[in-house]
Design brief:
The protein has 550 residues and is an alpha/beta fold. The protein has 19 helices and eleven strands. The radius of gyration is 26 Å and the shape is globular. Bound molecules: pyridoxal-5'-phosphate. The site of pyridoxal-5'-phosphate (PLP) has 15 residues, from helix 10.
């Protein structure tokens, strides 16, 4: 902790009223104004080094070493540091050991570079400190939120001008809500679907009031299931658990050869439930628009048809892919989303917002009434208080950030980002296919693809092998790809992630694949080639050090 020792100005700081008043500083006079500017500069330029460096998940400082430094559990009695020192400390001590997700070589996760103006917008959000749970702590910001929600609703559902003029500032209806992320957006959608299915009726005050056993009794139901492809995000299982349905009630439907929900299997599952399990209800079916692992998009139009025929709530999890709708060139990939009942979209993914922001939208502006809550001191009936129909209580004014970002970027600006990701992923897939040492496992539909290292000798052996031999070779390849991903991560220059897909045409056993997500506009095909070069070098070295497995 050399740095810390230098910075630590073992202090004469005391917690007293004067000190407190200085903490609540406002830019009133020239001196305090200068101080505030100085701190902002320190932050903006101090992080420059961090943002320039490599990905930086190295072993140079292991997590174990780092955790040794963070073991003191006592809150200091007197102040330990001045703001300037805390900022320096964060920049010098914390940032170097954080992950530079903004690096163009960081292509493994759905978290990436953000436009720098987001930092400024986030600062305004913090400075205003509005709480959109209610009008009395947000006023115009609640109105802005309704407007931006209507803009995104329009992007998804394309209703008439009249429809939006009726609802954009209507205090009785709600087109969507901001959430903490995709997880709580999915949870909200399923909560709404659950309450709508088990609505109040003669002799029953609704599932929200009376709970699951009473609801199931009132409706003659024994079980309630949710149908989603195998590639569905685990937040759906979490939601089913929280909603009291049990996470085993999320029924995984097989995918087809292109990793989209297999429509025949989907139909068969519905038919089987309807004919053999009369006491089981289908709460919702979920189509994925940008599966977390493969980026694939379920056949949304066909799912919409089937859900409409069977009266099933159709939810689209577009946490990842939603903003593709901004691209004229690529929005056809999400065709059918406009026929859904609800949609999840993350702000902190392809809207390039800072952590954290999610959203959920509903086609029916009244459906959110089924989760309305009122407290006398805060949310009153008929007010615009956004907290009435939201899982969160107090929450930040993320609408200000999103609305400003949409204005700064324009739909076209976002489309450039989206198209760049999709085109770069396609070029990367071609490059992988060109190289003998790699196998493209899931081709990109959006900007995510998976592949694995599989040298020519292994490819030849696999082509000829019996099943048991195929299994053995694939297990070795799995081992090799695990090692490759770890070694590349530890080298600290670039980062791809890794996941395990179910057995497929490449492998009779579950298959370990490398996963890339191309969303950083600075990531180009040159960089992606370098990443493959590095993987070839790493593997060559690794295989030389170990018994040749193949
Ligand atoms: C990321 C993601 C989620 C979860 O969103 P969080 O913001 O991480 O809570 C859900 N579904 C899909 C398809 C996702 O990609």
């Amino acid at each position: 902790m050399a740095d810390l020792d230098i910075i630590e100005s073992k202090t004469d700081l005391v917690a007293d009223w004067d000190h407190l008043m200085r903490v609540f500083i406002r830019p009133e006079d020239d001196a305090s104004r200068q101080t505030l500017i100085k701190y902002m500069e320190q932050i903006l330029f101090g992080l420059h080094e961090f943002l320039k460096k490599n990905v930086g998940i190295t072993e140079a400082k292991s997590l174990k070493d780092l955790s040794e430094r963070f073991k003191n559990t006592t809150i200091c009695e007197e102040p330990e540091k001045k703001l300037a020192d805390v900022i320096t400390c964060l920049i010098r001590e914390i940032a170097p050991h954080a992950v530079n997700v903004a690096s163009p070589y960081f292509v493994g996760h759905m978290t990436s570079a953000i436009p720098f103006f987001m930092v400024h917008l986030k600062t305004i959000e913090a400075a205003l400190n509005q709480n959109v749970v209610k009008l009395e702590t947000s006023k115009v910001v609640s109105v802005v939120e309704k407007q931006v929600i209507a803009k995104i609703h329009d992007l998804i559902y394309r209703q008439s001008r009249d429809f939006y003029q009726t609802h954009v500032q209507n205090t009785d209806t709600t087109l969507g809500v901001f959430t903490e992320g995709g997880t709580t957006a999915n949870l909200t959608a399923l909560w709404v679907a659950r309450n709508a299915m088990f609505a109040p009726k003669e002799g029953f005050r609704g599932i929200e009031a009376e709970g699951i056993p009473a609801a199931f009794r009132a409706y003659g139901v024994e079980r309630c299931v949710i149908l989603a492809s195998r590639l569905a995000h685990y937040s759906l299982r979490k939601s089913a658990g929280l909603l009291g349905l049990g996470n085993e009630s999320v029924i995984p439907i097989d995918t087809d050869a292109d990793y989209r929900m297999d429509i025949e299997a989907f139909k068969a599952a519905i038919a089987r439930i309807q004919s053999e399990l009369p006491e089981t209800r289908i709460l919702a079916a979920v189509g994925i628009a940008g599966a977390t692992e493969t980026g694939t998009v379920d056949p949304l139009s066909e799912m919409a048809d089937i859900c409409a025929e069977n009266g099933i709530h159709f939810h689209v999890d577009a946490a990842w892919g939603g903003p593709t709708l901004l691209s004229r060139k690529n929005r056809h990939l999400l065709k059918g989303i406009e026929r859904s009942d609800s949609v999840t979209i993350d702000g902190h993914k392809q809207f390039y917002m800072p952590m954290s922001c999610g959203m959920v939208y509903f086609r029916d502006p009244e459906i959110l009434d089924v989760i309305a809550y009122h407290a006398n001191y805060v949310n009153r009936w008929g007010s615009v208080d956004l907290g009435i129909k939201s899982l969160a209580g107090s929450r930040e004014a993320n609408s200000l950030v999103l609305d400003a970002a949409l204005k700064i970027m324009g739909a076209k600006g976002y489309a450039l980002l989206i198209d760049h990701g999709i085109e770069s992923a396609a070029a990367f897939a071609e490059e992988i296919a060109r190289r003998d040492n790699f196998q493209l496992v899931t081709a990109p539909v959006l900007n995510i693809l998976t592949y694995r290292y599989c040298p020519p000798a292994a490819q030849r052996a696999l082509a000829l092998a019996e099943v048991s031999e195929k299994i053995r070779i694939n297990e070795e390849l799995n081992e090799l790809n695990r090692a490759l991903q770890r070694l590349q991560r530890e080298a600290g220059k670039s980062f791809v992630s890794r996941t395990t897909l179910k057995a497929n045409r490449f492998s009779p056993v579950d298959i370990v694949v490398l996963r890339t997500v191309v969303m950083n506009p600075m990531t180009d095909i040159e960089i992606l080639r370098e990443i493959l070069d590095e993987q070839e070098e790493i593997t060559a070295r690794h295989l030389a050090d170990h018994l040749p497995v193949l």
